[in-house]
Amino acid sequence: MYKHTVTSTPLSLPALHVDSADGASVEKKRMLLITNPHASTVNARLQGLVQYALAGRFELDCVTTTGRGHATELARQAAADGVNTVVVFAGDGTVNEAANGVLGTPTALTTLPGGSGNVYNRILGLPTDVIDATERLLRRADDWQPRQVMMGLVNDRRFLFSSGVGLDAAIVGHVDSNPKWKHKYNENYFLYCALKVYFSQYVKNPPALETTWPGCERPLHGITSVVQKADPYTYFGDIPLRASAGARQDVAEFSGMSLKTARPTIVPGIAFRMFSQKYVMPNHRQIEAFEAVPEVTIRTRDERPVDLHVDGDNIGQVNEARYSVEPQLLTVLG
Questions:
Q1: Does a structural domain hold residue 44?
Q2: DSSP β-ladder status, 108-113 and 85-90
Q3: For residue 334, is it within any domain?
Q4: Residues 182 and 110 in one domain
Q5: Nearest alpha-carbon partner for 330 in 184, 123, 134, 186
Q6: Mean pLDDT of 35-40
Q7: What predicted TM-score, i.e. pTM, was given to this entire model?
Q8: For residues 193 and 175, is the Cβ–Cβ distance under 8 A?
């Protein structure tokens, strides 16, 4: 069924039925486990434990990605074959790819934490420990409660929870240019890259962006803009970082904000609000926010292309980013 299937001894278990909580024999649900072997916290030992556990309650197939876009292909085939759920054991980039594969189908997407941030894993309410998250999925065999959510669409790319144009996207691109350091130092390397990109590219000559949406009274002018389809925007360790308020997966709307200036004097206040659980970013005088809008357009005012990211994956530079809500629904299992 799957071209790059990798199976281990636990997957050869022949049982196709399992006793439910009330003792009745029920057919196992079909599950595809997609693993990215290059993800930050994935290793052979954990993968073997996860496979062994899941094979006891699900009819399980396992596949390992071989490159960019492979998870989309695998998830799409799984949905076409009627698999009940696709589980991604990897980071947010691979989760995004798999979501594109099962979008608009009854096949449910869920995750195991295998990356450095695991933002969508947490948004789904799953534990950040792999063993605990696996146990949660095992419970779902008897308590199958998938739900439907919405994805965002920017230009021709879909995203699950966040996208940005400008500074944050440039930081992501710098981080991804050295995956070895990213995996080794995690959040500390993100912080290092953030400071380096900010002082080398944004303090002296930042880009000029304009953010608009239907019905806005005036454009927002700034040096970076972010758009959220879910909350929070990202995490730093266990701390949720909230760039804007009101972002929800179950409504056809976006929330976001635009940062007016890159002056170093505003950095302490911005950082304080990002890490604070009491204050929110839009309250800062150098931030302008928008909430509950169906479409957003961010364009450069000085014809300089700027970096764009989706779900923490830098996808290149653009002069314009047009955001809308993807009309097809995504089925997820939390």
A1: yes
A2: parallel
A3: no
A4: no
A5: 123
A6: 86
A7: 0.86
A8: yes
Q: What is the pLDDT of residues 79-88, one digit of tens each?
A: 999 999 999 9
pLDDT tens digits, 234-274: 888 888 888 888 899 999 999 999 999 989 888 777 777 77
In residues, how long is the chain?
334
Distances (CA, A) of 128 to 19, 132, 250: 28, 8, 23
Instruction: Report strand pairing: 239-241 vs 220-222.
Output: unpaired
Q: Could you say which of 145, 172, 207 is where a domain stops? A: 145
Structural domain contains residue 3: no
The three-class DSSP label of residue 162 is strand
- Residue 279 burial by Cβ neighbours in a 10 Å radius (0-12, 13-18, 19+): middle
C-beta of residue 256 within 8 angstroms of C-beta of residue 281:
no
In b/e form, how buried is each residue of 165-196, taking b as 16+ CB within 10 angstroms?
A: bbbbbbbbbbbeeeeeebbebbeebbeebbee
Give the range of the structural domain holding residue 101, as residue numbers without chain letter.
9-145
Tokens of 273: 């609000």
Separation between Cα atoms, residue 105 and residue 290, nearest integer Å: 31
Claim to verify: residue 59 and residue 200 sit in the same structural domain:
no
Query: Are 208 and 322 contained in the same domain?
Result: yes
Dihedral sign of CA atoms 283, 288, 294, 300 in order? negative
Do 135 and 161 lie in one domain? The reply is no
**CB of 299 within 8 A of CB of 213?**
no
Q: How far is CA 236 from CA 184, 226, 242, in A?
A: 15, 17, 11
State whether 108 and 56 are in the same domain.
yes
